[in-house]
Design brief:
Helices cover 56% and strands 10% of the residues. The chain has 158 residues and is mainly alpha-helical. It has a single domain, classed as P-loop containing nucleotide triphosphate hydrolases (Rossmann fold, 3-Layer(aba) Sandwich).
Length: 158
């Protein structure tokens, strides 16, 4: 979900482990030479999801933290690939926290035009849980605490 902390926690985790950070949305914006909302406005959500899937399926990282966009969850192929090449982590962030974060920095959300954030979270959360190898609750925790919990809870990335 937008505002869940993927980019922030991903960056802090990569720094702690001396790994590189692969921010898929940033890679796509470089490829598009457009922001994601601008790309979606020009080409549509289906075209964006296809490009996102291609980017994910092309990943073969080593010593990297991958921060995909939240809509990656709609692609079974992408999620299966991520599970093969990495430990998939779901940052379980309360709706109120997400709403506060995105209120100050609006973001595009696949399905967001037709749904409010609450509905989108209810739709996506079962998929996030389904594909997660590990779930970390973020409520009431600072970045350092979350990163430490991830490092301690995911032997495979240490």
């Amino acid at each position: 979900m937008p505002g869940s902390g993927k980019s922030t926690i991903g960056k802090a985790l990569a720094e702690k482990l001396s790994y590189s950070l692969i921010d898929v949305d940033s890679l796509l914006e470089i490829e598009f030479q457009l922001t994601i909302p601008a790309f979606i406005a020009l080409h549509g959500e289906a075209a964006f999801l296809q490009k996102q899937k291609e980017a994910i399926l092309g990943l073969t990282p080593k010593d990297s933290i991958i921060s995909p966009g939240g809509s990656v969850i709609y692609s079974t192929a992408s999620m299966e690939h991520l599970r093969r090449i990495s430990t998939v982590i779901f940052l379980d962030t309360p709706l109120e926290t997400i709403l506060a974060r995105i209120a100050s920095e609006p973001r595009s959300m696949i399905g967001g035009a037709a749904e409010d954030t609450r509905s989108l979270l209810l739709k996506r959360q079962p998929l996030y849980v389904k594909y997660a190898d590990k779930i970390f609750r973020t409520e009431g925790k600072n970045i350092t605490k979350i990163v430490d919990e991830i490092v301690n809870g995911c032997e495979v990335i240490q």
